[in-house]
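Figure 2 data, in text form.
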Amino acid sequence: MADTVIDDPILNRPYDQPTRHFEFDTDGITDRISESRRPSSYFVPVPRSRKAGRQLELAELTADQIQLNLLVNRIREHVTLWRRAGHPNVTPTTRRLLEHWSDPERDNRVLFCQREAAETAIYLAEVAPRTTDVWIRNELAAANAEYNDGLNRVALKMATGSGKTVVMAMLIAWQVLNKSAAPQDKRYSKRFLIVTPGLTIRDRLRVLLPSDPDNYYRLRDLVPPELSGGLGQAQLVITNFHTFLPREVGAGRGVSRLTKDVLSASRPSPFTETEGQIVARVMRDLGGGSQELVIFNDEAHHCYRGRTDEEKLTGADRTEAKERNEQARVWLTGLQAIRRAVGIKTVYDLSATPFFLSGSGYPEGTLFPWVVSDFSLIDAIESGIVKIPRLPVDDNQVSRTVTYLDLWAQVRDELPKGGRRGQVMLDPTQMPDTLETALRALYGASRPGSPARTRRPVGHRRCSSWSAPTRASQSGSSTGSAGTSAMT
């Protein structure tokens, strides 16, 4: 097949609503430009090959695989009309924030994808209940009743690298400043719990603490000077979902496992925390009070309620799915315990990949039904927001073996054993030669200014760098960020 060469993949300005996009056809992405915004959609995943010993092939993303995200597109239309009308039906505090964020003269401008995500959350909370758009809340309530036991979750899908942390800061400012201005307004809260999948992400989110010297409210100029004093009223805790696991209480220390099993055989264990004790520990730094919390789930695709899986997984796939489902169960049941204890106003989910994976009990690649906003990876590329992903298409080595095609098999025996659980870290100065040359080839092929070249390969005997995301793994992908890990 002929190559598709895209000399410049950037079609839109990062601060304005996209108005152009590259089209897909039955062979993949093309260089044809459509003079309109790309609708929110996803690619129906291709069934995986189960043939033993065969490497999974990459499936091209083609037009016949595209399915529209109907709810997201309908909400997007209403939010766009509301924006063009000047954001009516909001509080004075909210209006001031929206004006500040959209000011074209400010030095540190807010990206359009960040504004749209925040606007969508605001629209659902302040505008939709006062207009005929109450149907949006009804549809979300129905989805959350089915998938989240009634927990009020609202998901904002944003490509990796497009600034999800900034959006969290914008929503925290919106909530706490409105609560400060109108303490009796039950739509808002000053108490926030931010839940992450790991310690590294938790530490990175310290910029959301108003007391942090590098907080985003100041560095990103997210709050007008006359409103900044109200940020000090925010009560905010950042934790990881592992804190929802019950810990051993004092009486259990030194007691043998056999004794614990016997005494806990027919009743809750007296040696581990109760649900109430877990909630009290997690919320210890939030203080008392009856005010409901606002929760932020970062990398929220790790939090879902699984169901009996009809798909018969085996081997490593089964083990991975079981571990993933258990982590998701811990995360979601922890939130449900908090709701029972003190109440949760809203859970804002932020993720680049908010969809169900294999083993969850839902069709693989299915978008979470409570997603209300979407700015995909392809949108972010076409707006010049994120770096262009690279995939192999050419190989100048004279060999029947494709370079780096199965890199893991080539380097795994030379890597430290134990992985994350054993806390065995790879010394970057002592990495295997094959891995080092692969990394150098990848970054060497990512020089600024190189054209975005795509190829629709006939087979796998090509290996170099290519840029446009024409293919994704068969685990499912949206027309953007859902395929990030597969395409980078």
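Caption note: The CA atoms of residues 161 and 312 lie 35 Å apart.
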